[in-house]
Fold:
Amino acid sequence: MADLSDPVKGKGAPRVRIDNMEAKVFKAMLHFIYTDTLPEIGEEEIVEMAQHLLVAADRFNIERLKWICEEILCKHIRKDTAATMLALAEQRGCDGLRDACLKFFSSLDMLKAVVATDGFTHLRSSCPSILEVLVTNVAP
Structure:
């Protein structure tokens, strides 16, 4: 917002630089802002795009987009994505996604399967406090 409202930058500066976001994610976010819908996203990239859009929506405080992305991710929790999604939920304050991930982890067999993934390594290093919740959440 500061980039857009600064009078010095506003005059003669035809571009605003958005760092740490892929162009296709920014384009999808702009599409949502102008149409209140997501652009066509192929099934093979829906999870990755929803994760990136959720981060962008959180960054720019676009709550409806954040909620839509959270709903998409809740429907795509799998063994290979669950830990990464739980870390994202913790970092971005997405209670619905967090609860869906914890439910996914509720069996000991599933927890064991997810612990073997690279996503779990990321979860352990980025959100160590959630590990205690995971252990107490697992049904015997």
User: Anything to note?
Assistant: Residues 51 and 69 are 7 Å apart (CA to CA). The chain has a mean pLDDT of 89.
